[in-house]
Amino acid sequence: MDITAYDVFTTIGLPHWTYVERPAYESLIEKCIKERTIAFVHGPSKSGKTVIVRKVLEKLKTRYFEMSARNFKSADEFAETLARQLKIPTGSEADPQTKIAKVFAELSH
């Protein structure tokens, strides 16, 4: 089978040829998902953050939604969007930290 550049550098789906397995990280992400723990994955651009999480989610056949932090201009906007996605009412709290705390408190139930 001939491999083309399109096979290697995919723009959709998960990479097959270039995926670098990281068992320790994959195991930690899997544990967080199974225990319904909130995880914040961060690192340099193009380091495989999204791919490793998607790979674990695919393995576990878990429903999820994605949010990119670069889309938000403020903590308040992040809290509102997260609450809306999860259908969690935040009320009229003015303080973004209060909204975020309320959202994460709901998630931990």
Summarize the structure.
The chain is built from 5 helices and no strands. It is mainly alpha-helical.
Low-confidence stretches: none
Q: Give the number of DSSP strands.
A: 0
The secondary-structure element order is: HHHHH
Structural class: mainly alpha
Cα gyration radius (Å) = 17 Å
Q: How far apart lie the N and C ends?
A: 50 Å
Assign an overall shape.
elongated
Average pLDDT: 80
Task: Please give the share of residues in helix.
Answer: 40-55%
Largest sheet: none
DSSP helical segment count: 5
Number of domains: 2
Strand content: under 5%
Feature tags:
mainly alpha; 48% helix; 0% strand; 109 residues; single chain
Detailed description of the structure:
The structure is a single chain. It is built from 5 helices and no strands. By secondary structure, it is mostly helical. It folds into 2 domains: 1-64, no CATH class; 70-109, no CATH class.
Topology:
Elements: H1 5-8, H2 23-34, H3 49-60, H4 75-86, H5 96-107
